[in-house]
From TrEMBL:
Entry-linked InterPro entries: EamA_dom, EmrE-like
Protein name as it appears in the record: DMT family transporter
Keywords attached to this entry: Membrane, Transmembrane, Transmembrane helix
Stretches assigned to the EamA domain: 17-150, 161-287
Length: 297
């Protein structure tokens, strides 16, 4: 889960600390492919128990950053926008794990990198936000990259996983846009609720017998890393950086996620993924660098 934050004015030392913390958060996020490949349980069980551990570990950042809020904040989470956020977050998390089980880690990582540009289109459709030319160019390039990846998967048995990765990305783009539709919507309670809901929905279909010590440890680490540790590191670090700089550091996740799996599990990215991923990665880097230069102008 990512956050959009306004950076605070910071000293060079604070800026350096911010860079290190955001990079550490990105490394933590990039470990998702490792956890997915370490699991030996079925996808239903993985979705459910990762979500449960995520909810448990999310309690810490909620307490640290006031995410629990007041009774009004929790009540707001069950309003129309809150329920929409919960629904899209639930679908996104389930599709995320499902994609890892049915396609390559590299495909999931590079398709997910297109989320900001899908969010820009949704912002235009739902909020009438203007899309600047550089966003359109980068978004078109990302669309071409995704097309290359998915077209190569048609005959390789990965199409279901690629479509799940695309579903995850589109629903997460809604997660990005919905808070802009309702600025008063609390951030963390809906995410906590969606994690609990995901567990309740998928646990009945899982295999309790597959939850040995190994899988429980991996699932606990998976939930803690992606929902708690990375979130805390990112929130603290991004306070000292321009949003574009945080986004630029975050693009390294696109490269790191498949590289870890390649090195540790001998799962090389498909050639089409390398080509499509290079197109997507170049577009994302070009866009975030242009945003960073514009912010300094």
């Amino acid at each position: 889960m990512r956050a959009t934050l306004t950076s605070e004015t910071s000293s060079p030392t604070a800026h350096s600390r911010g860079v290190l913390l955001v990079f550490a958060a990105t490394v933590a996020w990039s470990a998702s492919g490792i956890y997915a490949r370490l699991l030996t349980t079925d996808a239903w069980t993985a979705v459910a128990w990762r979500a449960l551990f995520a909810a448990l570990f999310l309690i810490v950042p909620m307490a640290l950053f006031g995410g629990a809020g007041t009774r009004r904040a929790w009540k707001k989470s069950f309003g129309p926008t809150g329920l929409a956020l919960i629904a899209f977050q639930t679908i996104s998390q389930a599709a995320f794990i499902g994609a890892y089980y049915t396609t390559s880690v590299a495909n999931v990582a590079v398709i997910y990198a297109t989320a900001p540009f899908i969010a820009a289109v949704l912002g235009w459709l739902l909020l009438k936000e203007r899309i600047v030319l550089r966003t359109m160019i980068a978004g078109l390039a990302c669309l071409i990259g995704v097309g290359i990846i998915i077209s190569a998967s048609l005959g390789a048995g990965r199409i279901v996983g690629d479509l799940l990765a695309l579903l995850m990305t589109v629903t997460f783009a809604f997660v990005i846009v919905i808070p802009r539709m309702d600025p008063d919507l609390p951030a963390m309670p809906p995410i906590f609720i969606s994690a609990v809901l995901t567990f309740l929905l998928f646990a009945p279909f899982g295999s309790w017998g597959s939850l040995d010590a190994h899988n429980l440890v991996v699932l606990a680490a998976f939930g803690a890393t992606n929902f708690s540790v990375a979130l805390v590191l990112f929130i603290i670090g991004a306070r000292h950086l321009p949003p574009a700089e945080s986004a630029l550091i975050g693009t390294t996740e696109v490269v790191m996620t498949p590289v870890w799996v390649w090195l540790l599990f001998a799962e090389p990215p498909p050639f089409a993924t390398i080509v499509g991923g290079a197109v997507i990665f170049s577009a994302v880097v070009w866009y975030t660098l242009s945003e960073l230069r514009r912010g300094k102008a």
